[in-house]
Amino acid sequence: MSTEFDIAIIGGGNAGLTLAAQLAAQDNPPSAVVIEPQTVQQRDCSWALWALDQQAEQLTHSIKGRWRRWQLVDETSRVVHSSNQFSYLSLSSADYLLDCAAQLREPVSLIEDSVKALHPQQHETIIETEQGRYSAKTVYDSRPPKIAYCDLRQHFLGWQVTTKEPIKDPDIATLMDFRVDQSRGLHFIYALPFSDHHLLIESTLISGRIETQDWYRDAIKGWLRDNHIEIDEFICEEMGVIPMDTLRTKADPAASPTSLEPKPLIATIGAASGAIRRSSGYAFQHIQQQISQLAAGIAQGHMLVPTPISSRLTAMDSIFNGVLQSRPDLAVSLYMDMANGLNGDQFARFMLGQATASDWLRVIAAMPKAPFLKETLKQGVKKSVKRISKQLLRQQKNA
Ligand SMILES: Cc1cc2nc3c(=O)[nH]c(=O)nc-3n(C[C@H](O)[C@H](O)[C@H](O)COP(=O)(O)OP(=O)(O)OC[C@H]3O[C@@H](n4cnc5c(N)ncnc54)[C@H](O)[C@@H]3O)c2cc1C
Questions:
Q1: Which CATH class is domain 4-65+87-145+247-299?
Q2: What Gene3D superfamilies has UniProt attached to this entry (predicted)?
């Protein structure tokens, strides 16, 4: 097998394998390799997203559950949305990735190996792995971003179970049920009925600190008890941490545009490039969009990676997270009020980052004005201070 490629893709997750499958489908594919250390089964988890019918049809092989209705619940109210346009889907990541891998064909391949280091040369990058060395003119790196200790994170532990009695309303996905302990951060139960006897229940916390596993388990047990649901069979447990703050891997110096030497491109894709929505942790659709644009660009000889989420949306999400952190007492009502202010289609568009101007107006109208104004000013001042410090540093360097 050749060790020289036009493109090396580091990581065969959502971004890496989607890109490889799309390159393989092109008329004149570039030579490309995906380097991934783990099997898809080792990484299997649930990916949820809102999708229009056409996309849902394309994902049929990977769909574990599909709902036209979803709800948010707190101590005093319940908001139930329904949509004819959008479904809320839960995918098996393993099935999705196997489907992508099955579409690979020469000259695009997947190898099981782990990248240790990248060594940029003048025209290509040497990729040092556990088992050898490869070279590529362009490297797309999807290794997950590092999460700093104190950053805001969404962390969860979930159980899949079968239940003794039929589940009430199995056609409704519970996105957030806030009727749980709120003392450690914004806490909610996420519950997806895959059938009338098969349930996924996750205890999810948005905070800077991860709790012991038993803390999440106790929350799940308490919620099951409160909802009179008895477990028949325990299927599996899954857990995860999604960063909601420091989302971008630092650009590699080799890709720095300030360098005078010609350098090969090393760019991040997927979550590593900032594709995780800061206010919700959803990333799937942003990655799909980014990768489709990138693959179309590569076919035209344009190798640069499109930004997955607009800077305006990222700024709005940062303000939302800022209010969550500075006013934890408002956290539950922020989500409930937002859900209340939108119908199912508007809510799905908002979560997908595709809100129209009138959707935005509805969200803004539903939010408390003073804390958002304060946070907007705070972040505006922070940005200005950062910009001025950078300018001063640059001036000092040039002096
Ligand atoms: C537990 C969890 C649940 C999530 N649920 C959702 C959800 O429901 N909906 C949603 O929209 N988003 C969800 N997300 C966000 C999620 O990050 C994305 O949906 C998606 O998985 C990110 O794709 P990616 O390709 O950028 O990264 P990944 O899918 O994480 O792929 C990165 C790959 O890099 C590989 N890798 C790591 N080190 C090396 C190395 N040294 N050499 C080579 N390869 C390496 C990893 O094995 C991995 O396969 C979830 C995230 C997590 C962590």
A1: alpha beta
A2: FAD/NAD(P)-binding domain
